[in-house]
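Appendix B. Worked example

We walk through a single record from start to finish. Start with the input: the chain for Succinate-semialdehyde dehydrogenase, mitochondrial, Rhynchophorus ferrugineus, length 507.
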Amino acid sequence: MFKYFLSKSPTFQSLRLIQTGVQGAASKYEKAYINGQWTSAISGKYFEVSNPSNGKVVAEVPDMGVPDAQIAIDSAFSAFQNWKNTTAKDRSQILRRWYNLLVENQSKIAHILTAESGKPLLEAKGEVVYGNSFVEWFSELSRQVRGEIIESSVPSKKILIHHQPIGVVGLITPWNFPHAMIARKAAAALSVGCTVVIKPAEDTPLTAIEMIKYAEEAGFPPGVINIITSSRDNAADVGKLLCENHLVAGISFTGSTTVGRILYRQCANGIKRLGLELGGNAPLIVFKSANLDTAVDSALVSKFRNCGQTCVAANRFLVQEDVFDAFVEKLVSKVQLLKMGDGFQNGVQLGPLINEQQLNKVTDFVHDATSKGAKVIIGGKPANYLGELFYEPTVLTGITSDMKVYTEEIFGPVISIIKFKTEEEAINISNSCDVGLAGYFFSEDISQIFRVSKNLETGMVGVNEGLISCAEAPFGGIKQSGLGREGSHLGTEDYTYIKYTCIGNLS
Ligand SMILES: NC(=O)c1ccc[n+]([C@@H]2O[C@H](COP(=O)([O-])OP(=O)(O)OC[C@H]3O[C@@H](n4cnc5c(N)ncnc54)[C@H](O)[C@@H]3O)[C@@H](O)[C@H]2O)c1
Ligand SMILES: O=CCCC(=O)O
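Next comes the structure step. The output line below is what the pipeline stores for this chain.
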């Protein structure tokens, strides 16, 4: 059924992918990248990557296991011995070349991203621009990482501080932002002299492979960037190896809190450096002083980006009783205009869910809510007239604390609205969970803005704003939403350690 396309040219391979697999005519075989070589799995096995909009196979990628991952780690460790000694200027220039190539090819990358994730093409282009901005940012930041000389209390001593690269880093990334999550981690790590082994999500490895083709063209030496692709069957073993192998200095992971916890445990023995960007359960509070039009428009962006499959997506809507009816009415009038469908169709704003597991989760959460008394205002069921993995944009009211939509992140296009009376009540509900990634609120009252921003137990707060992610800002959570910050001038800290050198007996 599937044809081999044996051209060795990455560019040709990308074009074939778009002209064949993406359009649904046939699939092709991709390769992983280890030590500067495009390579298959030692086992010879492949796994299929399909378009969630229509189930068609887009391509097949090597199903790599522990032996492949070990080779990638060894290569990255060997490459680190030279890469750590390159100058910040050298690294900055290579990153800049990578950025330029990613920009030149952003339309092609976005097509691949839509084909494997179902994300509407316009949104996929937006993600590529967003992801590229991290490569640009860290190419610029590379030369700004500087040490210090601290005056000692003893005249014959000097205290020097250097930031040195930690070594090989394992990057494990999710399917919801196949480009941006790799860019945000890899560019930061590479900019300070670390080498990387990337393990993209099994649903979306093609965007990652495409990105690495441009990294190769940009001139990263062999072994500095490696990408291993693994099916769900191998992901846990490969992850364990990355966490436990003594040549790996650190792990950076974005994904579920469940897997984050496993990685945390696995990293404990080796006291590995660990960056975790895990799940959220973002509150979005609309106070009575809010500009309701701003609140509705921002809420739609926050909720429906990537069809609700975003870790910072608003999950629990809290609306003050005075404006509850007006807000719901305005919101529903806009939700009913949203166009859902195949990401390649013009005007489509919402794609499918990524896989059956996500569809089942969303269906189960809505069923749980309605069975406990929630009211469906719009939607509330799978949109199987569009395809197997589509779920209608949904608004639920009458939410109570015993429902899953109240306590857990749904990761789907469902808005659950809770009515509250006082600011204190809204803060209590917002903070009544064990995760704290993002929180949003809408208010025109300046004292309330400072008060609520301070009291929300989240790592990030959007005030009168639903889209807060950018390269310049520190992205990350508190509580069980994770450890560390990505992006911003703090985004290299996970990848460096502080070396204190004392120079003594100076005369
Ligand atoms: N925070 C986020 O950005 C984010 C992203 C994706 C999913 N999620 C959440 O996770 C839920 C499940 O989605 P998912 O199953 O794709 O996420 P996941 O956490 O299972 O997968 C994320 C990455 O971890 C890898 N992985 C899976 N099990 C592993 C293991 N034992 N050791 C090492 N790596 C492993 C996967 O291959 C993938 O690369 C979603 O419903 C959503 O709530 C959150
Ligand atoms: O879902 C995870 C990341 C989303 C973002 O970077 O805005």
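Two observations about the output. The chain has two domains: 22-278+485-497, 282-474. Residues 172-176, 199, 201-202, 235-236, 239, 254-256, 259, 262-263, 277-279, 311, 361, 409, 411 surround nicotinamide-adenine-dinucleotide (ligand 1) (CB under 6 Å).
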